[in-house]
Amino acid sequence: MPDLPALPADPRWRVEHLPFLSAVSFALLTCAASVGFFAGGADAALGAAMGVLIVTVSYTMSTLVIAWADTVRPALLMPLGLLTYVLKYTLLGVILAFGVSSEWPGKTALGFGIVAGVMVWTGVQAWWLYGRTVRK
Questions:
Q1: Any idea which UniProt keywords this protein has (predicted)?
Q2: Rounded-to-integer distance, Cα 15 and Cα 34, Å
Q3: What are the backbone angles phi and psi of residue 37, rounded to the nearest 5°?
Q4: DSSP letters of 64-96?
Q5: 9 inside domain
Q6: Domain membership flag for residue 103
Q7: How far apart are CA 68 and CA 4, in angstroms?
Q8: How far is it, in rounded angstroms, from Cα 31 to Cα 3?
């Protein structure tokens, strides 16, 4: 076995942003469902909420897999990270292909929910990381 670098004393920094991002995502999910309901009824509310939920689960899964791989063996980061992304985007492609081909009235709201989820999660995570680096 090759000599591996020592692990950090406290590996929790890899996931310390998840509770805050989960709270923001829940708030966005609630807002998206409300906007969807007022704009297009119950189907649009469900679609918008599902879009935000898909992004939240997807990003959380990536974070947890990457954090776990980094604590177990950093050499696993690239293969497991790429595998996670391939699985996520394959699943997202299947969901979107099914949504586009269906006559479900909430499919447009689903797309808007996904876009809103990606923009908000990415923005809040960038803001979180910027604040973390400024403190140090």
A1: Membrane, Transmembrane, Transmembrane helix
A2: 29
A3: -65, -45
A4: HHHHHHHHH-GGGHHHHHHHHHHHHHHHHHHHH
A5: no
A6: yes
A7: 16
A8: 50
Residue 40 lies in a domain: yes
The amino acid at residue 97 is: A
Q: pLDDT 10s digit of each residue in the chain, 136 long?
A: 567 666 556 667 778 889 999 999 999 999 999 999 999 999 999 999 999 999 999 999 999 998 888 888 888 889 999 999 999 889 888 888 887 788 889 989 998 999 999 999 999 999 988 887 776 6
Tally the C-alpha atoms within 13 A of residue 57's C-alpha that lie toward its C-beta: 11
Give residue 57's domain range.
Answer: 15-135
Total-model pTM: 0.84
Q: Tokens 């391939």 label which residue? A: 86
